[in-house]
Amino acid sequence: MEIPKIVGAGLVVIGAGIGIGRIGGSAMDAIARQPEATGKIQTAMLIAAALIEGIGFAALFAVN
Amino acid sequence: MVILHKPLKLIIAILIAFLPTFGFSNTPIDAAQSTTETAVVTNKTEAKPTDEKLEVKAKILEVIGHHVLDGHDFSLFEYEGEHVGFSLPIILWDNGVHFFSSSKFNHGESVAESNGNFYVLHHEKIYKTDASGTLTGEEHHPTNLQPVDLSITKGVLTIMIVALLMFFLFTSLAKSYAKNGGISSGFGRLFEPIVIYIRDEIAIPNIGEKNYKKYMSYLLTIFFFVWFLNIFGLTPLGINVTGNIAITFGLAVITFVITNLTANKNYWGHIFWMPGVPLPMKIILAPIELLGVIIKPFSLMIRLYANIFAGHIVLMSLIGLMFIFKSWLGSSLSFMLSFAISTIEILVALLQAYIFTMLSALYFGSAVEEHHHEEAH
């Protein structure tokens, strides 16, 4: 497995990690502001996280 | 603690062992064999890892391959060299239908004969050969002719079982409403809130009150089908259906076909001639939107496939790690880590089913959207 592929895969994972981390952080802030909206916020957070993970996996799939 | 002498080499060897993770559904075994061979060559020139460590790794790769790839017989486990399981029917179309049991292949060792033609099983692919089973071409890429393979494989059998399970589950749930005066009874009661959730939170917000009923049956089917198959994949029986790109391709194609066949003029208008933007933008947007029509179901396929397949590979590699660390500390840590990861995988099973259903509903909603009048700025 060549070095550019490994570096590329690593960058993809960093990108996905940062993206999902930011979403998680915003979700935490939102839940702290309005605890009664926790259900809706959780649902939206999971949807956004799954979409970002989809891009991450698609990129890893393309790298290999 | 032999392992800790060269931790970096161990990490690199495990990373190389992870190579089959993102290959195509049926070729990882070939990649795995060649990489373990190159690992042996490079390691011998520098350090001296024990041969049994590499043998354990090769054995782990074989077990992972058996668990994750589709197979022509349903072998549950190996007990003292004997495969325990049952064989499935092979159905080939090669100028005439050939129908025989996969026990004739004897796990890839013998040549099967059927109506005068000889077939051999090589890396779970069927090739047509002569009586002695010669395979022309290179070691892992035979160039023999391949008949059209319509066999009932492990995956096909699992799909049939899940379909029967869903059928009996939901028809008995539906019948129980009549018998019990409008309230469901029995084990199926568990699924009523889920069905209501799919209707109220996935179908109606995305598709709208007017047309959601047309799509409800497909959305419900997809949700429970994907969920049950994901859960089945987590059992140690080695059935991995949604982690097979052909299956997710089929599901994505059905979503694609339904979206485009039930679309109204507004949908196609938005793709080819986006209303409300200046003319140069319209011309630029048209090919991008057209590409989007293909890419959206494509991403559905990749998302489900990669999540489930990668989850299985990671989980089983961690379980294999237990056998590489032959110490109390290493093995128990790997065990706890693999237990935590399997809990996450159960969540991922439900989540991926939900995401697939929700995105399908979103695409259906965009297909039947009514025209919104432009608001004045």
Radius of gyration of chain A: 15 Å
Approximate helicity band of chain B: 55-70%
* Helix-strand category of chain B: mainly alpha
What share of the residues of chain A lie within helices? over 70%
Count of DSSP-assigned helices of chain A: 2
Largest sheet, spatial ordering of strands of chain B: 4-3-8
User: Could you state the oligomeric state of the chains shown?
Assistant: heterodimer
Strand tally of chain B, please?
Answer: 8
One letter per element, helices H and strands E, the order of chain B comes to HHHEEEEEEEEHHHHHHH
Q: What would the principal axes of the Cα set say about the shape of chain B?
A: globular
Strand content of chain B: 5-15%
Tell me what the structure shows.
The complex is a heterodimer of chains A (64) and B (377). Chain A is built from 2 helices and no strands. Chain A is mainly α and 64 residues long. Chain A has a domain at 20-63. In chain A, α1 (3-33) runs antiparallel to α2. The N and C termini of chain A lie close together (9 Å). The mean pLDDT of chain A is 88. Chain B has helices spanning 7-17, 28-46, 51-68, 154-179, 191-207, 212-233, 245-261, 265-272, 279-324, 328-367, and strands spanning 73-79, 82-87, 89-93, 97-101, 112-114, 117-122, 125-129, 148-149. Chain B has 3 domains: 2-69, no CATH class; 85-152, no CATH class; 196-367. Residues 20-47 of chain B have low confidence and may be disordered. The longest helix of chain B is centred in the C-terminal third of the chain and has 46 residues, at 279-324. In chain B, α3 (51-68) crosses α9 and α6 runs antiparallel to α10 (328-367). With 377 residues, chain B is mainly α. In chain B, β5 and β6 form a beta hairpin. Chain B is 59% helix and 10% strand. Classes of the chains: A mainly alpha (64), B mainly alpha (377). At the A-B interface, α2 of A face α9 and α10 of B.
